[in-house]
Amino acid sequence: QAQLVESGGGLVQAGGYLRLSCAASGRTFSTYAMGWFRQAPGQEREFVAAISRSGGITHYVDSVRGRFTISRDNVKNTVYLQMNSLKPEDTAVYYCAAKGAATGWQLYTAGSEYDYWGQGTQVTVSG
Questions:
Q1: Which residues have a Cβ under 8 Å from the Cβ of 57 and sit 6 or more positions away?
Q2: Is-contact 76 21, C-beta < 8 A?
Q3: Does residue 35 contact residue 50 with C-beta atoms inside 8 Å?
């Protein structure tokens, strides 16, 4: 059972930046495909970004592509989401998620595919 803890959220002005971190417990982090999701008030959870086991393959929702970068450090057991050029519509609680027993190339965009979830971290972008 993996445990994921997000950090790095906060309040930022439009055009600003934040870096979210997700620290994972366990010694099998390198076998997990990882993802970031977000949920705004009154909205359903939305896929944001995903990364393969090795970090060699990434995918983003169209609305953040070119602004956000997902990365991972398999030695530190941590996945990151660098968020640049933030917009008010990025305001949400951001969650990291892990998919166990992933292949070396696979990544996932559906929340139902993931096995483990963090507690979330609030990102608020003012206009």
A1: 51, 105, 107
A2: no
A3: yes
Other Cβ atoms less than 10 A from the Cβ of 17: the count is 12
Taking only the tens place, the pLDDT of each residue in 4-34 is 999 999 999 999 999 999 999 977 888 899 9
CB 47 within 8 Å of CB 39: no
**Signed CA dihedral, 99, 32, 108, 4: sign only:** positive
Q: What is the pLDDT of residues 60-78, one digit of tens each?
A: 999 999 999 999 999 999 9
Tell me the DSSP string of 35-57: EEEEE-TTS--EEEEEE-TTS--
Higher pLDDT, 67 or 100: 67
Residue whose token pair is 């139902």: 112
- Cβ-defined contacts of 58-62 (< 8 Å, 24+): 58/107, 59/107, 59/109
Which value, to the nearest 10 degrees, does the dihedral of the CA atoms of residues 39, 53, 109, 10 take?
20
